[in-house]
Design goal:
The protein is of the alpha/beta class and about 625 residues long. The chain has 22 helices and 13 strands. The structure holds one RNA strand of 76 nucleotides.
RNA sequence: GCGCCCGUAGCUCAGUGGAUAGAGCGCUCGCCUCCGGAGCGAGAGGUCGCGUGUUCGAGUCACGCCGGGCGCGCCA
């Protein structure tokens, strides 16, 4: 076993107070238990009793029984043989055996000083981060992106940014739906409508927009069902497509081009990291499917059942208690998406050398992925790699049903995003801030993304423009406002924004590939001896130190909402501090210290939001007008 | 029928086996000669769907019910 025990675990990362405390307690705990324990086994938690203490250690309670000792006595022993003196006040045993830990303010101040000089804000680069493939967004060609693509796109992108920041090499894969019988129907429909007749005509040149294609797609599907002759021609068209017949091929390529133009528009609006090179659609795996089928057959993992080539990974039973198949090749000889997913997985491990593959795909496909992963493991395709379905719930309307338009159609993603921006613009106008389309976009898009990221991804959530654009509560607007306030104070103190911006990695740097301008360090703009006197500024200081743990906790289960929860708590803590502690008018030393706290708040919020793919502007309104001008 | 997920304050949601279960909205009451009031503080509001277990300790883990959602052979 590799030294798992040394690795950072749930909610604990090395520069985080919880992790540092755990490491101090660990030697004594190992001695007392004789067990090889890791940081998470030290049971260090943030304390709910904020007045007494900041952290608590529950290890004595956890191990007392096993060791046959009284919890309180064990707690005393643990304290006696641990060296905590520089970090916290003398620990106290409370209740049945809790160890209450109160951080020394001087220590907190020292750690904050170190953070000021650290552009990574205490987050360590993973030494062996491995190579992670993230499969996300995955829209369909010839269909408009709709609200069903929102979560995959937003969550996948946030995970990509967080992982890259932590030093993991990430390969984004946009598994677009660009193949299969639907395209036979669609292309046949287009041909019969007269498209591509003069050899070079393309949908776009014919004036077909993505919306037109979407409409053709639907009418083709309807015809396919009702008109057997058309269905026959559509099937023949699939064969033409597979064999690369030029006119069919040209039409298909133009469909893909026009669709990618549409995806690009949405991705630009969302500021998503996905690039054209990241597209690896279903069509890309067609040449591999025969080999996949053959390999599975040769290994005895697939056999013909009811005329289809099926694989039955162990442990899955269906309707009549029978085994559930993955259908590799259908009766009609065509490959299914089960086959495509298997081929993609094999390719990602073998050719892309992934050590980890994340599938950011909706929860309804859980069974499908469990089966694909199980079969891949049986086939030996997951050697040295792990695959994980990062599932998410649905976006619901106010009626708690899948969000749809009044007519029952899926909500177009572009409409939804534009409405968010429009509403943000209306709010700005209402506040007398005026026309600023870019700011409205930052606020509106940020609100949509944050609403999606801030609840547990596995749960459904109810979509509400009103709530997500509120200034109160756990919203991006509240965080952006807190950040802007911190910046406003710094501005008044004469600390240049550019300097502050350079002092940490911005969202764009996070989006960059490894090696592209990740380490362009500059000197931090502020150096100060911190003083933590007031309860609210001490609490803020500790909240700032918890950033690495919050990020680690979010990454631990690929749950971005944990980072959101942290950022909101930080902003709340900052607001309380801001309210009760004068900054600019404080005595010199205290003023410097409090400005440093503001700088750290601004940096943490900016970085944290950046990791979620959300911009944090330095101001939310035009600069105040000078009377002289 | 089988499987997965959900059920926490009137509403929307946090809660990674630990102390008296927390936020925001809404409701009640306070706070601007002061750095961005787009803010801050306080109060009321809970059989954590129900039950039985495991545990020193259960909102959290197991099992069984009730209620809701989603899957389960040739759509992707």
């Amino acid at each position: 076993m590799s030294d798992q025990s040394e690795r950072d675990g749930a909610g604990v990362s090395c520069a985080d107070p919880a992790c540092l405390l755990a490491r101090r307690l660990l030697p004594a705990l190992r001695e007392l238990t004789g067990e090889r324990l890791g940081v998470r086994d030290a049971h260090v938690r943030e304390s709910a009793r904020e007045h007494d203490c900041d952290y608590q250690c529950n290890a004595a309670l956890a191990y007392a029984k096993r060791l046959g000792r009284a919890p309180r006595e064990l707690a005393e022993a643990l304290i006696r043989s641990s060296d905590l003196a520089d970090i916290c006040e003398p620990p106290l045993v409370a209740g049945p055996g809790f160890i209450n830990l109160r951080l020394r303010s001087e220590w907190v101040a020292g750690e904050l000083g170190a953070r000021l000089a650290d552009r990574r804000l205490g987050v360590a680069l993973r030494q062996d981060g491995g190579r992670c493939v993230i499969d996300y967004s995955s829209p369909n060609v010839a269909k408009e992106m709709h609200v069903g693509h929102l979560r995959s796109t937003v969550i996948g992108d946030a995970l990509l940014r967080m992982l890259r920041f932590c030093g993991v090499e990430v390969i984004a894969q946009n598994h677009i739906g660009d193949w299969g019988t639907p395209f036979g129907m669609l292309i046949e429909e287009l041909v019969e409508e007269g498209a591509g007749e003069d050899g070079g005509a393309e949908p776009q040149q014919d004036g077909y927009s993505i919306a037109d294609l979407d409409a053709f797609y639907k009418s083709a599907q309807a015809r396919f069902r009702s008109d057997p002759a058309f269905a026959e021609r559509a099937r023949a068209r699939v064969v033409s497509l597979q064999s690369g017949e030029p006119r069919t091929q040209a039409l298909w390529e133009s469909l893909v081009r026009e669709s990618e133009r549409h995806f690009r528009e949405i991705y630009d609006l969302l500021s998503v990291c996905l690039r054209p090179e990241d597209v690896a659609g279903e069509s890309a795996y067609q040449p591999l499917l025969e080999a996949v089928a053959q390999e599975l057959s040769e290994r005895g993992l697939a056999q013909i059942s009811d005329g289809a080539l099926c694989a039955f990974p162990a442990g899955f039973s269906g309707r009549e208690g029978g085994a559930v198949p993955l259908i590799i090749r259908k009766q009609d000889g065509g490959f299914s998406y089960d086959a495509t997913d298997l081929a993609a997985l094999r390719h990602r491990v073998r050719e892309l050398a992934a050590t980890e593959i994340l599938y950011v795909v909706g929860a309804p496909q859980r069974l499908h992925f469990e089966m694909v992963f199980a079969l891949a493991a049986e086939a030996g395709w997951l050697e040295g790699a792990s695959a994980r379905h990062v599932a998410f719930g649905s976006v619901l309307g106010p009626d708690r049903k899948m969000l749809r338009t009044r007519s029952g159609a899926p909500v177009r993603l572009l409409d939804l995003l534009q409405e968010a921006v429009g509403r943000a613009q209306a709010i700005l106008a209402e506040r007398g801030i005026g026309e600023d389309r870019e700011l409205a976009r930052t606020i509106g898009i940020g609100a949509v993304k944050y609403a999606d990221l801030s609840t547990d991804r596995e749960h459904d959530y109810i979509f509400s423009f009103e709530r997500m654009l509120a200034f109160e509560g756990n919203t991006s607007v509240y965080l952006q406002y807190a950040n802007a306030r911190a910046h406003a104070v710094l501005r008044r103190a004469g600390i240049a924004e550019q300097e502050l911006a350079r002092s940490l990695l911005g969202a764009d740097a996070l989006c960059a590939q490894p090696g592209e301008d990740r380490e362009a360090a500059t000197a931090p703009p502020i150096a100060a001896e911190l003083v933590l006197e007031e309860p609210s500024e001490r609490a803020l200081g500790i909240a700032l130190l918890r950033f690495p743990g919050a990020l680690a906790g979010a990454l631990d289960d690929y749950k971005p909402h944990r980072l959101c929860t942290y950022l909101n708590a930080l902003a709340v803590s900052f607001s309380a501090f801001y309210e009760s502690c004068p900054i600019l008018e404080a005595p010199a030393a205290l003023r410097e210290s409090r400005l440093a706290l503001c700088a750290l708040v601004a940096r943490t919020l900016t970085l944290g939001l950046g990791l979620l793919g959300i911009r944090a502007p330095a101001r939310l309104s035009p600069p105040p007008r000078r009377s002289a001008q």
